[in-house]
Design a protein that fits this description.
The chain is of the alpha+beta class. It has one domain: Thrombin, subunit H. It is 29% helix and 30% strand. The longest helix has 27 residues. It starts with a helix and ends in a 16-residue tail after the last helix.
Length: 152
């Protein structure tokens, strides 16, 4: 893992929610001038196969009936059991911001699913969101500052 990757923080995408990615040619992605030299943070997710550092990916995340697409560059990929853990760095500030919002929704949905399984009855999205926000939102710091709390 590159030394500067150690300083960067990655949000952890919940493993039980779908995330699809594909490699895209580097020439189709240009980092905006405004992101030069900035640490925009990243996303950590599991993949079935290794993804080489430097690869440019387009991620698609679907949650609560909405689908969002983001682009970024793979910073690292390492074995994790039978899978691989991938660290993706965002290259566009808008993607980084949107990804943080989408990941909060993903963590709320994952929390709702866990609570429903454990409690034996379904809880609504609004109730789950209120509880998750009260318990975990403060720990869900900006991308470059840290990762969501373990309970999220």
């Amino acid at each position: 893992m590159p030394a500067n990757a150690m300083k960067r923080r990655y949000m952890r995408h919940p493993r039980n929610l779908p995330l699809v990615f594909r490699t895209i040619p580097r020439e189709f992605v240009q980092a905006p001038e405004s992101s030069q030299g900035q640490d925009l943070g990243g996303l950590r997710f599991e993949a079935l196969c290794p993804v080489p550092p430097g690869a440019v990916l387009e991620l698609t995340i679907s949650v609560c009936g909405e689908t969002q697409t983001f682009r970024g560059t793979v910073h690292w990929s390492r074995p994790l059991g039978r899978h691989f853990e991938v660290g993706l760095c965002f290259t566009d500030p808008d993607d980084a911001f949107r990804a943080r919002m989408v990941e909060q929704v993903c963590h709320i949905e994952a929390y709702r699913q866990r609570r429903s399984r454990r409690g034996g009855r379904s809880i609504g999205v609004e109730q789950a969101a209120r509880t998750w926000i009260r318990r975990y939102a403060m720990a869900f710091s900006p991308l470059s500052q840290g990762e969501p709390a373990r309970g999220s």
